Amino acid sequence: MAENGHKEHPKYMNIFWWLLGLTIVEVAVAIPEYSIVLKAILLIGLACSKAALVAIYFMHLKFERKTLAAIVITPFIICVFLVIMLMPDLTLDTRIEGIEKPAEVVDTSSH
Amino acid sequence: MEHATTLDHTEDVYEPSLTPDSLGKLGMWVFLVGDTMSFGALLAAYAAVRAGAGAIGWVPPDEILDINLTAFMTFLLICSSVTMVKALESIQNGNASRMCLFLGLTIAGGVIFLGLQVYEWYHLITHGLTLTGIPDHGLSGAAISGSNLFGPTFYAITGFHGLHVTGGVIYLVVILVHGLRGRYTAEFNHEVEIVGLYWHFVDLIWIMVFTFIYLL
Prior knowledge:
- The structure holds two protein chains of two kinds.
- By secondary structure, chain A is mostly helical.
- Chain A has one domain (about 1-110).
- Helix content of chain A is about 75%, strand content about 0%.
- Chain A has helices at about 1-5, 10-30, 35-60, 65-90, 100-110.
- The longest helix of chain A has 26 residues, at about 65-90.
- Chain B has one domain: Cytochrome c oxidase, subunit III, four-helix bundle (Four Helix Bundle (Hemerythrin (Met), subunit A), Up-down Bundle), CATH 1.20.120.80.
- Chain B has seven helices and no strands.
- Chain B is an all-alpha fold.
- Chain B has helices at about 1-10, 20-55, 65-90, 95-125, 140-145, 150-180, 190-215.
- Classes of the chains: A mainly alpha, B mainly alpha.
- At the A-B interface, α2, α3 and α4 of A face α2, α3 and α7 of B.
């Protein structure tokens, strides 16, 4: 690892300008009012590209073994599943019809 | 030298055993992978809470949070990542004083970031964004009741990130002190690379936090 990384450095300033440019695009994309789904896709796409630039060039993943990249990408994929697995809990109406009935019974007995 | 060439030949057959350099680096990566899951869990919970609140039930973050300030904070962290790679580049070229200068600039970036976060939190708390409340200027009742988790999720996620920045600043100061004492050379500098990994990770996480908490 240490033997081959020393000689050539990527052009860090180019990465900096890319990150700066993508940040400005992100803010520009976020300000106007439009479909939240489209906005989310655009913003998450931009954020992931920025994160990838940081990991690949600043954290030198490009110059490491491919095995390390596989180790690093795994939690990000698991996080996507994490979001998907949590969604039904809050977005679906999981109330069971029968459960509301006892409340009605209580209602009538109080009359 | 002979040893190195035998390693090169066998490299494709099996993994060489870990050297002190690569062990430290792998250790930091393993920590960062675990930390990714911590932030992943926080952001996934945030996404689920937002989705559960529905479209009208959540106050648009830009009505409460200052996007310009945090965009500047993002810019600041990106700059400090650049000074961090410059510090590593300098010591790999054998220039220790230049490394110390860039490490100092990186620390300055982190400290200013933390200062701005304190300012932001103070401003938000005095304007009514607390763990249980939300500023109510011009907001509908539905938006306020749906957003009762706005404060807790905001403070938990930005606070957890802020703790990472604080830890990173302390870590960088330790490395800078070692650097000023002449510990690092063109041959021995993997500790600088490892602190760099941590610092870039904090930057990477902020990119995600900025997008999810402030922009979306």
